[in-house]
Amino acid sequence: MDEAGNGGGNGVTKKFMYMNRKAPYGTVYALESLEVVLIAAAFEQDISVVFADDGVYQLMKGQDTEGIGMKNFSPAYAALGDYDINKIYIERESLEERGLSLDDLQALTWEDEDDDWKEKSSLHLVGRDELAALIAEQDIVLSF
Amino acid sequence: MLHIVNKSPFERNALESCLRLAADGSAVLLIEDGVVAAASNTRFGGMLADGMKRDLKFFVLSHDAAARGLAPERLAPGVETVDYGGFVDLVTSHDTVQSWL
Amino acid sequence: MKLSLLVNEGPYTHQASDSAYRFARAALDKGHEIYRVFFYHDGVNNGTRLAVPPQDDRNLSQLWSELAAEHELDLVLCVAAAQRRGLLDGDEAKRHGKDADNIAPGFRISGLGQLIEAGIQSDRLVTFGD
After folding, report:
1. Which CATH number fits the domain that encloses residue A41?
2. What ipTM is given for this predicted complex?
3. Residues of A119-130 as b/e, b for ≥16 C-beta within 10 angstroms?
4. Domain span at residue A51?
5. Which of A89, B54, B66, B74 is surrounded by the most beta carbons within 10 Å?
6. Which of C78, C82, C103, C118 is catalytic?
7. Rounded to 10 degrees, what is the CA torsion of C68, C69, C71, C74?
8. Residue B95: what are its φ and ψ, rounded to 5°?
9. Domain range for residue C27?
10. Over the stretch B47-64, which tens digit does the pLDDT of each residue have?
11. DSSP secondary-structure letter at A1?
12. Residue C12: pLDDT above 90?
């Protein structure tokens, strides 16, 4: 089975945005969205990932799923940086409405090849106007 | 850009989030349970009116409205009805389509 | 224009598959090309050939199969999502030691890369879900 199916792009680069608006575990969308993003990384497209509304809970630190019998997949977000997915946007208002701040979310980083492999944060706090502008410039928006 | 909302605003925040993040001048298509927002005199009427003030264009899928007992005369003024063919035309006439699931 | 669809919910519980099907038909009627329909999450359940809905109800899997046959549509079930939910083609069933397969005609099982590739190759990607 050709899981990545790479090579079908014919050199086209499109702006793909993955919009996550749901909390993890109650539904499968957060997990299966992450699976899409990790596969998408192989296609050399321009990827950004958004966490807004209850989607911000996907990145909460200290997720403990032992009591619900489901796998805690939150450590897998750390792999995004390895695939150079570093445009990860958190909507500020969504955090604030939920009494959260960036400190409540796990740190996601990437290493900048062009800057002596310096470790940099992949998380970008954006206000709704800035996020609206980012959405407007996409070619494909996938919402999970 | 075309935004598609398929959830009633009484049940979910999809329409609210869509209107919060849709750029001025975008089109918003209400389908499935989302058509509820297109009815006149709901408590969400103000949300649509505010959207229209910043040039958002609202469309409702007529078949979904009809299926829920919302005949055209029950729809809020300024909301345009389209059939599935009109839905296709909205998709092809906008560069990007986002479904607010 | 070249369009692709993403269907994220199974038949009957949500309207997503019905909406996607009607959209696909309307698009084909207007002369557009459907490059691919990708079924993800519970959407893979649209691909079973074992559904037996009541006679006075629509049979969504069959409708998709018929549309695929008529227009040579590429209906793809995500392999990871399909395996989780017990949707297997002959090869997958054999590989996992299962005693049956259940994929409806016109559907095939492949990787998530097919979704990304559809996004790249198509002029528009339209999502139907919950």
Report:
1. 3.40.1260.10
2. 0.97
3. eeebbbebeeee
4. 15-143
5. A89
6. C78
7. 40
8. -65, -35
9. 2-128
10. 999 999 999 999 999 999
11. -
12. yes
- If one counts the domains in chain C, the total is 1
- Report pLDDT digits (tens) over A57-83: 999 999 999 999 999 999 999 999 999
Is the minimum CB–CB distance between B31 and chain C shorter than 8 Å?
Answer: yes
How far is Cα C103 from Cα C88, in angstroms, rounded to an integer?
6
Residues in chain B: 101
Residues C15-44 as b or e (16 or more Cβ within 10 Å = b)? bbbbbbbbbbbbbbeeebebbbbbbbbbbb
CA distance A39 to A6: 9
Residue of chain A minimizing CA distance to C127: A142
Question: Does A141 contact B96 at a Cβ distance shorter than 8 Å?
Answer: yes
Termini Cα distance of chain C: 26
- Asked whether residue A5 is assigned to any structural domain, the reply reads no
What is the identity of the amino acid at C112? L
Q: What are the tens digits of pLDDT across the range A16-61? A: 999 999 999 999 999 999 999 999 999 999 999 999 999 999 999 9
A55 neighbors A21 (Cβ within 8 angstroms): yes
Q: Please tell me the CATH code under which domain B2-100 is placed.
A: 3.40.1260.10
Which of A14, A16, A19 is the best residue to mutate to test the B interface, defined by the most B CB atoms within 10 Å of its own CB? Answer: A19
Cβ A41 vs Cβ A84: under 8 Å? yes
